[in-house]
Amino acid sequence: MKVLAADDQPIILKSIEHKLKSIDFEVVTAQNGEEAIKFFDSEKPDLVILDLNMPIKSGFEVIEHIRNERKSTVPVIVMSGNDEEATIVRAFNLGADDYIEKPVGLNEVAARVKRLLKIPLNVEDLQKDDEIKSAILQKHGVGVVIPCYNEEKRLKTEKFGHFVRNNPGYHVCFVNDGSTDNTLEILNKFKEGKEGSISVYNCLKN
Description:
Elements: E1 2-6, H1 10-22, E2 26-30, H2 33-43, E3 47-50, H3 59-69, E4 76-80, H4 85-94, E5 98-101, E6 104-105, H5 106-116, E7 136-137, E8 142-148, H6 157-166, E9 170-177, H7 183-191, E10 198-203
Parallel strand pairs: 1-2, 1-3, 3-4, 4-5, 8-9, 9-10
Antiparallel strand pairs: 6-7
């Protein structure tokens, strides 16, 4: 089955995509409301997960398109950091089927998706990916800057990798602060495949 996930935070999208794919869903992602509408029409998803505060078109507009323009009954889950009662009520009045307040665990997201699609949730679904099984999606993206000077032999990339995998919503920027050893090479290699959550800035002078 296919899920459309729309959120303007790439780290959030990547985490949802990773989790749902690990339990055998096909996932299409959009970073704004306009893309979400476009992909809803073209991809014909079985369920939609939406943030409300997205650029170009809001999540509210996407729900209106799904329910009023397309007359679709596809389940819609709103996942938002907004906990105001008026916002939640508006989302339900427009046709949302569920409302999840961030921060939220990825296992909970998977469970709610399967519940709405009337698919049994197995214990194995919560254990398929040990790296993200306890991950929490935060309300907002958080940037962390880490200066590195001659850290070739001290940089614990394994621990940093574990942190970003288990803390969706964080972006870690390593600054090579004029190192004279192989720190930059180690950082660039570590960044490979993790560009959505790790960046490297090379400062030539300490």
